[in-house]
Amino acid sequence: MKIEKIEFLGSFTSIDRCPKWILPEIALIGRSNVGKSTFINFLTNQKNLAKTSSTPGKTRQINYFRIDNRWYLVDLPGYGYAKLNATERKKINHLIHDYLLYRKGLTLLFLLIDARHPALPIDLEMCNFLGENNIPFSLILTKTDKLSKIGLQKNIKLLERNLSQHWEPLPNIFTVSSLKKTGREEVLSYIEEVISTLR
Ligand code: GTP
Ligand code: MG
């Protein structure tokens, strides 16, 4: 798929404020600092479309991008940022859960997991939350440049073993590096495949 027109529609603090106009939504969730915003920039081939930071907790709102007047790309705040106070953490978790449970346009959800840490309890918790609420998702392993090929294969196996205790069939697993610019085409083709079946 080729992306031609990208519009930033805004940052929203509740799902009631999100765009009323319905288009299929492709959303990204994951632990804070896993690389969601960086991946959005890589996917759309933009330098600073989504704000990124080496300090976790950069994205605190729901950010909407309209792609080719055809679909929305949605950047969600990261979960599990330890330094937030309890009220802020609650607010963010509430926003994420609200979005996942009630946003009608949600068409495809990518859960991003750091390829180096395939079995963090907080990520498995999110997988379980999605499972319990019948929300299908695909996985994207990020920062694969930080691992050897063998290390990556080992971690994929570990992740699959963990997931297979609760999931059948297993979710799709994509591997990307926004730094080395790998894995983009596979994700884009999958998005295209899903969107085109909606028509
Ligand atoms: P929150 O907004 O806090 O939820 O974080 P986020 O998931 O949006 O993470 P963000 O994209 O801001 O990236 C966090 C850090 O990881 C930044 O320092 C990025 O440069 C780095 N990073 C992101 N993707 C990659 C990657 O593919 N490889 C490497 N080596 N670093 C990456
Ligand atoms: Mg972010």
Walk me through this protein's architecture.
The protein has 199 residues and is an alpha/beta fold. The chain has helices at 36-44, 86-102, 121-132, 149-164, 184-196; strands spanning 6-12, 25-30, 62-67, 71-75, 106-114, 138-142, 173-175. It is globular.
Characteristic terms for this protein:
binds magnesium ion; 34% helix; single chain; alpha/beta; 199 residues; binds guanosine-5'-triphosphate
Content-based structural category: alpha/beta
Count all strands and give the number: 7
Radius of gyration: 16 Å
The average pLDDT score comes to 92
Oligomeric composition of the shown chains: single chain
Strand content: 15-25%
- Give the CA-based shape: globular
Largest sheet: spatial strand order: 1-3-4-2-5-6-7
Number of helical runs?
A: 5
What is the straight-line distance between the termini? 16 Å
The run of helices and strands is EEHEEHEHEHEH
Largest sheet: 7 strands, mixed
Note poorly predicted spans: none
What is the percent of helical residues? Answer: 25-40%
**Which kinds of small molecule does this entry bind, naming each only once?**
guanosine-5'-triphosphate, magnesium ion
